Amino acid sequence: MAEVLRQVIKIDEELCNGCGDCVPACAEGAIQIIDGKAKLVADKYCDGLGACLGDCPTGAISFEEREAEEFDEAAVMEHLDRLGRDYDPHAHDHLGDKPAHPAHAIHAGGGCPSARTLDFRSDARQTSDNAPAPQIGSELRQWPVKLYLVNPGAPYFQDADLLVAADCVPFAYPSLHPDFLRGKALVIGCPKFDDLDLYLNKLTAIVSGNNIRSITVLHMEVPCCFGLMQVAREAVAAAGKDIPVQAKVVTLRGEIQDPLGLASLF
Per the count of CB atoms within 10 A, which of 59, 148, 170, 246 is most buried? Predict the structure, then answer.
């Protein structure tokens, strides 16, 4: 089968502890525990939807875009039959409306939880049209903020607490400025659509060339967004620094989750 440029999962064996939580999370059976580590059995079994990302407690699973076999639903059914498992084409329906052909899910966006359609208007807070909107002062201390554009040698990174935020976070969480941005240097990005290798190189340069005191990663609850935490961890490791890193997850309703505890230190 010809290979195409698409997104498939990537497993960091150093971070993987072999817990196996990702195995049942993958309805296609693309992941198995081999020699105590999670392995991608074959590219053609991975649909690229990322249902396994949120089930990895160590953040060992991320997306990568590379040449890979196209997703093959018929091969998945044969593979699951050999494993004694049933194939449920609707297994990821809770993540959103699945497109007609799963192979195009990562490109069309229809099967990705970050692209599902939700309407919150019916239970929105009722406010008077004449009521003044509350004013929140800006805590932004620098420009630019896009990770693509910032200069790792910029003076505002020196001796800074760094906030790494997903692009969508400020729209879902309105109190970003007072709750998370105050007193911090900021970089933002989208791990779904941007180049994670560039992110890693840029963050590594920031951490290596400055006395970064702490890193807070603030991202959305959708699976593709978890790549930001992975990049932050890899950047700290590549820089050889001992920096406290904490992850905060924003739900689609603008609430804060804290799956890794108050701080994940390494």
Answer: 59
